[in-house]
Structures are given as C-alpha cells and as structure tokens.
## 1
Amino acid sequence: VNGAVPTVAALDPQALARGVIAGDRVALGRALTLVESRKPAHQPLAEEMLAALMPHTSRAIRVGMSGVPGAGKSTLIERLGLDLIEAGHTVAVLAVDPSSHLTGGSILGDKTRMAGLAVRPEAFIRPSPAAGSLGGVARRSYESLLVCEAAGFDVVLVETVGVGQSETVVTTMTDTFVVLLTAGAGDELQGIKRGVLEEADIVVVTKADGGNENAARAARAQYEMALHLTRPAADNEQATPPVWAPRVLTLSAVTGQGVDTLWTTIAARQQFLERTGELARRRGGQALHWLWTEADAAVLEAFHGSADVQALAATLTAGVKTGELAATVAARKLALVFKP
Ligand SMILES: Nc1nc2c(ncn2[C@@H]2O[C@H](COP(=O)(O)OP(=O)(O)OP(=O)(O)O)[C@@H](O)[C@H]2O)c(=O)[nH]1
Ligand SMILES: [Mg+2]
C-alpha cells in the first residue's frame, strides 16, 4: 500500500488526485509518499495534487491521541477503529513521531500493533514519515491528513508520542486532543507535563482492567481535581471563545469497556465545535499556523542557501568571534544582504 512514487516524468498529479478521490488505495499510498517526499522535483507535483484535493478535504472528525510510549495508544486506536467500522465509519490512522529513525519509518502507528484494523478495507494505517525536525514531520502529517480526507475517510486518528514537544503538536491539526494516561505507575501528576493537561480536551485513564479498575478510578479523580485547578468544570457556549470543559474517562482497550463512552464524548465535542462555530474557527487558525510555519521554513532555507549570505557570513564571523563586531549588528547585515 505504501506505493512508491514513480519517476517524475511518469507522475501525473491530476490523475493521482482523481485516484485518491475515487478511493483507489494504490493512488492513496502514492499520494502520501509524494507529500512525504523531500525530493525538490516532487514538490511542485505534490503542490498541484494537493490543490486538486483541497475541495474534498475538511470532512472528517480529526482526533489526536497522545501518551508516553507504552501508554496504550495503538491498542486503543485499534479497538476504537474496529468499533467505528462496526458503526459504519471509515478510519484513517496517521502518526507523528520525529524521534523515529527506524528505516525511514516509525514503530509508532505500526501495523503489527493494529493487526486487526490493518486488514480491514474500511481502515488505512500510515506510519509516521521519516525522522526529522518536529515541524517537518508534523507538516507532512498535516498534508497526509488532508489527503486521507479527500480519500473519503470520515474519521482520522493521529497518534503522537508523548515526549519532548511532540505531544501537543497534534493540536495544530486535530479537532479534539485526547491524552492517554495510566494509573498505578506513580505518574499521577508528576511525569505528565502541565502543558499537556492544559491542552487536553479528553483525558483517558486507560488499562482499567484485570484488578486495575480501582487504581484507574482513583487516578481519574486525581486528574479531575488537578484539571479543575486551571480549567473550567463546565462548558460555556456563550463565552467568547466558547469554553469546553475537559472530560476525564476510564476505559480498557483490552476488554473494550468504556471505549464507547470515549467515542460519544468525541462526538459530543464535535457537535459542540460545530454548534458554536469553533470548528471552522479552529481549522482556519490551524491552516494559518501551517501557512506561516511553511513560509518561515521556506524563507529560512533560501536564506541559508543564498550565496550572498554565505559570502558575507564568511567575512563577518571572525570579527564576531573576537568581539570586534557585535553579533546582532552582523546578523542584521546578513539579513539585509539577502535577496530572495
Ligand atoms: N491490560 C491492558 N493492557 C493494555 C491496554 N492497552 C494497552 N495495553 C498494553 O500496553 C502495552 C503498550 O500498548 P501500545 O498500544 O503498544 O502502547 P503505545 O502507547 O501505542 O506505545 P508506543 O507506540 O510505543 O508509544 C501493550 O503490551 C498492550 O498490550 C489495556 O487497556 N489494558
Ligand atoms: Mg503505538
């Protein structure tokens, strides 16, 4: 399914877009490989294809799932995904993992951990693009999400590893941010960073099974208390902007108990977002975020690649090192010599 991108000459971005929209899985795999590609020759083709796909995007429920390694993200996504298919949905699973350096792909979102889901024709699982800067990996995942929407999936689940700064990056591309935690690991509060709870729309205490139910319920109460210190306890749709109060749930991805409540909570939040107009506002803001992130990256790359900048830098650095020239003054000289 991870269709290789044919040679540039053989690539027809319009035909690829038509294939994606028609639900052709080979075309989808190729389209995703194209947006993930770093080859300069692929970029204009990817851009033309995305332009053709854009009218078919923005149709799915977009959910981000974050949690430390081993928290149970893949197991939950498999369970939830299978339940959603049972209910008539189609599900795409993406991953954002900048730490991955395994053969250009990621263990995150690995199909072997979602074996039941991977074989379903109603599902599509795409591992994280190759390791790189967080911004670079996340940008590709954002484009992959758009491609999957154009392919007709009505739910997109994005798995993100909860380490470094990557845990909250899914909030720049999803409607609902689910944070997975477990009880009994001594991690109730410590180990989980404040910024993550600040951003969470739904907190899930998972692995509530096999005698772990009481610990999970206790952890849930603790997280609820902690959340209420900084977050509202009830929704307020009249406020500007409207306020969503984070929910805290317990569930087991192994027995399946509580997974239905997670979905009804995600669906309730989606209705809240639509009712209040927040969905369009949030997605518009996310699109602008990616506009400026991408523009910044492009300008920075051109700046560092500029012969003028490199030549002037070569003459300025010695003086900056010895202190004859202020670093800040040299920096402005470099910026002024740059002509795109
Ligand atoms: N008992 C129990 N075990 C679970 C549950 N969910 C996941 N596990 C187990 O926890 C381990 C890690 O689960 P994964 O789903 O791979 O966790 P992950 O968060 O995707 O991990 P990474 O992708 O490595 O970040 C596996 O051994 C699972 O079988 C659950 O609800 N109950
Ligand atoms: Mg996983």
Note: Residues 84 and 320 are 60 Å apart (CA to CA).
## 2
Amino acid sequence: MANVRLSDYDLDTLPDVCMKCGATATVRKSKMFSWHPPWVFVLLLIGLLPFIIVALIMTKRKTVEVPFCEAHKNHWLWRTLVIVLSFVGIAVVGIVVYSAMMEPAGRRGGAGDELIGLLCMASVLGLIVWIILVAVLQMTAIRASEITDRGIRLSGVAPEFVSAVEQDHFGGRFDLDRGVREHWRAGRERPRSEEQRYQEDEPDPRRKEDGFQEGNQ
Ligand SMILES: [Zn+2]
C-alpha cells in the first residue's frame, strides 16, 4: 500500500481508479477524514483531559469523494459494523457478569460462581482483543496521515491510484479500459467558446499580440 498527497485541486479531479485496489472505479463514496498532529499524543503523559482538549482544537477535517470499485465500495462500512457490533457483544457479556455478581451470594451455587468467573475473564480478554482488532482495522484502512489547509495525505491507497493521480499531473492519459478513456477524452475535447479560451491560462496568439502592442505604447 502506498501514500498519496492530494491538493484541493486534485480532490476535484480524482481519477476513476479504485483507491483500494486500482481497478476501474464505479462509485464515489463521500468520506470525511480527520487528523491531528502526532505530537498531541505526548499530552497523554500529562493526562487524558489535556490530550482530548488539544486534540479537539488541533483536529483538521477534509471530505473526499473517494473512488471505489464494486468490491470495495463498503471499505469503511464493514469496518465500522465489526467494531460497533463486537463492542456491543462484549458490553452485553460485561453487563450480564456485573448483574450476576450483584446477586446475593446465597442465591447462586458453586457452579454459578465458576461460570461468572469465566465470563468475567472472557469479557476482559474480549476487551483486549477488541482494542487490537480496532488497531488492525484502522491500520489496514485508507486513512489520513496529514491534513493541511491546502490538501490531504492519504495512507493505505493502491499504488495504481497513486500513478493515476501522478499521470494526471503530467497530462497523461490513464491506461484504463476504453470506457474510462472515452469519458476523459469527452471532457478534454469539449468544444470551448472563445471566452473560455481567454479565461484559461493557455497561450493564445491574440493575447501575445495584445501584450506586444501594449509594450510598444
Ligand atoms: Zn477495488
């Protein structure tokens, strides 16, 4: 997996290449990325509250219309579902254990105590596994590794997507299927009015002439 730096201009002209696998993209998913400088984590040494306050102030957000293929269109959805549902499962076991422990000791037998002990261990272990699971799911997802006022750096993207963006920078055409090429060609070769030509920064012979005349005056 690779990293890609995208300016605000790039974000408006992202290629139709799946950001996860490099295949032809069929959908765009609106995703709000958030990021804060890594030094904010140092504040955890002082305490949780200073960290949370500074992290909230320093966090930058940027929405990206991410291109995906059919296979990856739920790239973040299934991760969120796994994280939320597994947490709910652990929480339910935890609540059951807690309420069983609150029962008067006389009402439960030795076997019940053993079961509560096992469930208690299971929920603590489950919580540790859950934290590792969240870390793994986040590290394998497309994520922001820097957000500035002018752009965003994304990690965990397909190298093919990076080359497509770079090729776009150099004005090249992507080596994708014909449909995509035609789509781009149609965009490039739109008939443009004289007015539009003046508005763009392309060299225009008449403009050069004007400049020459002005220089002579
Ligand atoms: Zn894909």
Note: Strands lie at 2-7, 27-35, 60-68, 143-147, 151-157.
